[in-house]
Specification:
Cathepsin B, Chain A; 7 strands; alpha+beta; 46% helix; seven-stranded antiparallel beta sheet
């Protein structure tokens, strides 16, 4: 019998609800897997991912093959953060046959494994045809195996499993579960049949280069430097975002497609609120006093409130299926003014 586990997956906020914080399932598995290499990695990955999601520092193009609107390719952003900041890389491993053996080989090298599955098959035993047009595979993080029971240890949303108590926990909290090899293999096979993304492949996360950002303090200094570069033209960081948001869903789309677009849009706007939650965690020493932290939080909340007002207008435009929509100039000015105050405060911290 062989029981093999890579180092425990850990993340600081055990009550982080990924779905409400805007992380899709593909980002969640990377977030969790990064902790195998350093306990500070999840916070750093999370903060940088939403810094680059909210502000156009990297000028990452949109994914033309994405089935609903988003102004950038989220996978490109995630991989950039992993490689350029944390020194980690995602590597595709071809699976010709014997998924179990292929996963075990990677775990034996202490690399966490990401396996694409058909969500309907994995959770309910059958494929849901409604997923075909809109959803990608459902990725699972595999962290261990038992050759005696032929079970894999995975991380998944706890709401996908029968509750241990009568009270169902909040959506979007992940924990470790044990699943039979056959169940995982069947879900993998059906995913290959219905989805192009990650077809016949699994992914591993492994070190590539020395990390350029090793601590929260490193990250904060790096972010301050990046913001300071734009101190004379902060609005450039948001121009593409505002243009993208003014483009409404086509009238030809179905209600299901419209719902996906609205949810994606909400996550996009919510990135400012997420930055408000994550940036203060980077202040891990006494270099900056509590007053500065409070000011940053206050400015970020003000910026988020301005985005929230904008979201209400966008939602009404979506409900009324307005095509020739333009964001009211007064509302856009309030957003940009609030953002400038927030970014100016960050830039002022440059030593």
């Amino acid at each position: 019998m062989t029981i093999h586990y890579i180092p425990s997956v850990t993340y600081q906020d055990a009550h982080l609800q990924f779905s409400t914080h805007g992380l899709n399932c593909f980002a969640v598995v990377k977030y969790l897997a990064s902790s195998v290499f350093s306990p500070t990695n999840p916070d750093l990955f999370y903060t940088y991912l939403y810094l680059y999601s909210h502000y156009d520092f990297l000028h990452v193009a949109a994914n033309p093959n994405h089935l609903y609107k988003q102004p950038y390719d989220a996978e490109v952003l995630a991989r950039y953060v992993l490689v350029e900041k944390l020194g980690l890389e995602i590597v595709e491993i071809s699976v010709k046959e014997n998924l179990e053996h292929c996963i075990q080989e990677q775990l034996d090298q202490m690399w966490p494994v990401i396996v694409p599955t058909d969500k309907g098959v994995f959770l309910f035993g059958e494929h849901n045809q409604l997923h075909d047009q809109l959803e990608d595979p459902y990725p699972l993080l595999v962290v261990g195996y038992d050759t005696d029971t032929h079970n894999f240890a995975i991380y998944d949303d706890i709401n996908n499993y029968p509750p241990q108590t009568q009270r169902r926990p909040e959506k979007g909290i992940y924990a470790e579960f044990s699943v039979p090899e056959g169940k995982l293999e069947r879900a993998f096979e059906v995913s290959n049949k219905h989805y192009q993304l990650m077809r016949d492949t699994i992914q591993i996360l492994r070190p590539k280069n020395p990390a350029t950002v090793k601590s929260r303090d490193d990250a904060l200094k790096d972010i301050i430097i990046q913001v300071d570069v734009y101190k004379e033209h902060f609005s450039d960081l948001l121009t593409r975002k505002l243009i993208s948001l003014s483009q409404r869903p086509p009238t030809s789309c179905t209600e299901r497609e419209r719902d996906y677009m609205i949810r994606s849009e909400l996550r996009y706007i919510n990135s400012q609120k997420i930055l408000c939650d994550t940036l203060p965690k980077l202040f891990e020493n006494d270099v900056y006093d509590e007053e500065i932290k409070e000011k940053i939080i206050k400015c970020s909340i003000t910026a988020w409130q301005s985005w929230k007002n904008l979201l209400m207008i966008l939602t009404l435009a979506g409900v009324n299926k307005q095509q020739n929509f333009k964001i009211p100039e007064q509302l856009q000015t309030k957003v940009l003014d609030a953002e400038e105050q927030f970014l100016s405060l960050l830039a002022s911290l440059k030593k």
